[in-house]
Amino acid sequence: MLALGVIVTALVVSVQQRGDRTGDDQAAEPPAPVSTPLSDLDTSEMTLTRGDFCALVAPAAVEDVLGGAPESSDSYANGDATTYDEGRRDVAHEFGCTWTAAEGTTARAWIFAPPVTRERARELRAGAVDADRCTRARPGADFGEPSVAVRCTTPDGVTITYQGLFGDAWLSCSVTTPARNPQNLLARTGTWCVSVAQAAAS
Questions:
Q1: For the chain, how far is it from start to end, CA to CA, in angstroms?
Q2: Bond prior to 182 in cis (omega within 30° of 0)
Q3: How far apart are CA 13 and CA 45, in angstroms?
Q4: Are 55 and 135 within one domain?
Q5: Does residue 35 lie within any of the structural domains?
Q6: Entry pTM
Q7: 52 & 24 share domain
Q8: Residue 104 lies in a domain
Q9: Mean pLDDT on 184-198
Q10: Is the pLDDT of residue 82 over 90?
Q11: Nearest Cα to 172, choosing from 182, 183, 180, 160?
Q12: Helices marked H in the chain — which ranges?
């Protein structure tokens, strides 16, 4: 009887240990973030807040677009003194944020603080396409109305930017990669912009 009791106790301990290890394994592997292609998002009815949305962008979306945790990040608000990509320093009339990976990939998002009319939005769309080293990216999905997707080559690599009008809010988001011939950058940027628009709509 003593031997039988020892065997039963050993089996119970073994089952408990296996159960504990299974729980640890599950805890160590959180579910992957769900990514929504821009083509699956109806942006025609979305309204955005022209305010500080950066803290509302999902960390999982940042890691997804960068391929890992960012090495650095930065943000600015309407009225802040800001240095732009061209090295020009000016007072911002927008809310914006940037996340950068160790290998140089950068995800950005910004929204104008002042309201934007449809006429002004059409001017912004034309200006984006006419910028140096930029061309219209096709087939870019709708990102507000009017909207545009552009592909630009820069000293830092290649940048895809989506810009569009949501009500009276002009929202832009971009991904820059050091790769000269990046694969799926347009779709990757579109997915990133879905997360940005959802954060700005919160």
A1: 66
A2: no
A3: 57
A4: yes
A5: no
A6: 0.77
A7: no
A8: yes
A9: 95
A10: no
A11: 160
A12: 2-28, 59-66, 118-130, 185-200
* Domain range enclosing 102: 40-200
**Do 7 and 102 sit in the same domain of this protein?**
no
Whole-number average pLDDT of the chain? 81
**How far, in Å, CA of 14 to CA of 18, rounded?**
6
44 contact partners, CB below 8 Å, separation of at least 6: 142, 145
Instruction: Look up tokens 């290649």; give the residue.
Output: 158
Q: Helix (H) and strand (E) counts for the chain?
A: 4, 9
| pLDDT, tens only, 136-157 | 998 878 999 999 999 999 887 9
User: Which ranges of 31-184 would DSSP assign to H, the alpha helix?
Assistant: 59-66, 118-130
Average pLDDT over residues 95-121: 96
Nearest to 173 by CA among 110, 126, 125, 103: 110
- % of the chain surpassing 70 pLDDT: 75
Residue 99 sits in the same domain as residue 167: yes
* DSSP codes, 117-148: -HHHHHHHHHHHHHSTTEEE-TTPPP-SSSEE
Span 152-181, pLDDT tens digits: 998 879 999 999 999 999 999 999 999 888
For 90, 160, 201, 202, the CA distances from 184, given in Å and listed in that order, are 33, 11, 26, 28
Residue with tokens 């940005």: 196
Count of the separate structural domains present in the chain: 2
